[in-house]
């Protein structure tokens, strides 16, 4: 297999596009959660750049939590199986909860999270927010409550998303040319 380098990656969502969209998303959230105290859960590792940039724009009180899930192997095909590497969370009963994810693809991860939270807590409210939405790949009938950009069936890297652990640090989202 050919080694993928930065030159094989074609930017689709630039740093500026992401910044602008995050402003809009934050504005909506700031209106909706005004004066509430919210638990924001960042899904590691992919959502880390998105979450860190978005929370800086939020002005309601929030507590930040991290969970670590994995679903992709070393190829570009979703395994459809969600692996909870670390899902320790505080007591979320009666809390307003926002989950931040990098991308919703088959929907297995989103469904896993919503049933995990449902099973363990009676939260006051729950929102699943994803930077990217690959709607055409859905296997489960589930949609994010808010997303940054919709994309067709391309394998994306950058801004948190990886290929075999690489490219998470790119400041933009790009696709790998076949
Ligand atoms: P789902 O469970 O199939 O919806 O997949 C969700 C997870 O798969 C995401 O959190 C990502 O970590 C990973 N994923 C899905 N599509 C891509 C992609 O295009 N690039 C990198 N990771 C992806
Ligand atoms: Mg992820």
Report on this model:
Helix 1 (15-32) packs across helix 2 (48-55). The chain has one domain: Rossmann fold, CATH 3.40.50.2020. The strands form 2 sheets. The chain has a 6-stranded mixed beta sheet, sandwiched between helices. The longest helix has 18 residues, at 15-32. The model has no long low-confidence stretch (mean pLDDT 94). The protein has 3 helices and 9 strands, in the order E-H-E-H-E-E-E-H-E-E-E-E. The chain has helices at 15-32, 48-55, 108-120; strands at 9-13, 38-44, 62-72, 78-86, 96-104, 125-133, 146-150, 156-157, 173-176. The chain is α/β, with parallel strands linked by helices. Bound molecules: inosinic acid and magnesium ion (MG). Magnesium ion (MG) binds next to strand 5.
Name the features.
178 residues; binds magnesium ion; alpha/beta; Rossmann fold; globular; single chain
The strands making up the biggest β-sheet line up spatially as 4-3-2-5-6-7
Helix content: 10-25%
Mean pLDDT: 94
Number of helices, where a helix is a run of at least 4 consecutive DSSP H or I residues: 3
Q: Regions with pLDDT < 50 over 5+ consecutive residues?
A: none
Question: Pairing-aware structural class of the strands and helices?
Answer: alpha/beta
What is the percentage of strand-forming residues?
25-35%
CATH topology type: Rossmann fold
How many domain units? Answer: 1
CATH class: Alpha Beta
Report the count of strand segments.
Answer: 9
Named at the architecture level, the CATH assignment is 3-Layer(aba) Sandwich
The small-molecule ligands in this entry are: inosinic acid, magnesium ion
Question: Taking Cα atoms only, what radius of gyration do you get, to the nearest Å?
Answer: 16 Å
Largest beta-sheet details: 6 strands, mixed
């Amino acid at each position: 297999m050919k080694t993928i380098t930065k030159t094989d990656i074609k930017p689709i969502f630039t740093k500026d596009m992401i910044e602008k969209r995050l402003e809009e998303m934050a504005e909506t959230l700031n209106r909706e959660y005004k004066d509430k105290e919210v638990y924001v859960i960042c899904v590691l590792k992919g959502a880390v750049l998105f979450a860190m940039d978005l929370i800086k724009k939020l002005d309601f009180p929030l507590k930040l939590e991290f969970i670590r899930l994995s679903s992709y192997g070393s190829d570009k095909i979703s395994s459809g199986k969600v692996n909870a590497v670390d899902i320790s969370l505080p007591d979320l009963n009666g809390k307003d909860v926002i989950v931040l994810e990098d991308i919703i693809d088959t929907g297995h991860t989103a469904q896993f999270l919503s049933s995990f939270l449902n099973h363990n807590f009676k939260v006051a409210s729950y929102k699943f927010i994803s930077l990217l939405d690959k709607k055409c790949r859905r296997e489960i009938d589930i949609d994010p409550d808010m997303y940054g950009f919709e994309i067709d069936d391309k394998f994306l890297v950058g801004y948190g998303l990886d290929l075999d652990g690489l490219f998470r640090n790119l400041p933009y989202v790009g696709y790998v040319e076949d």
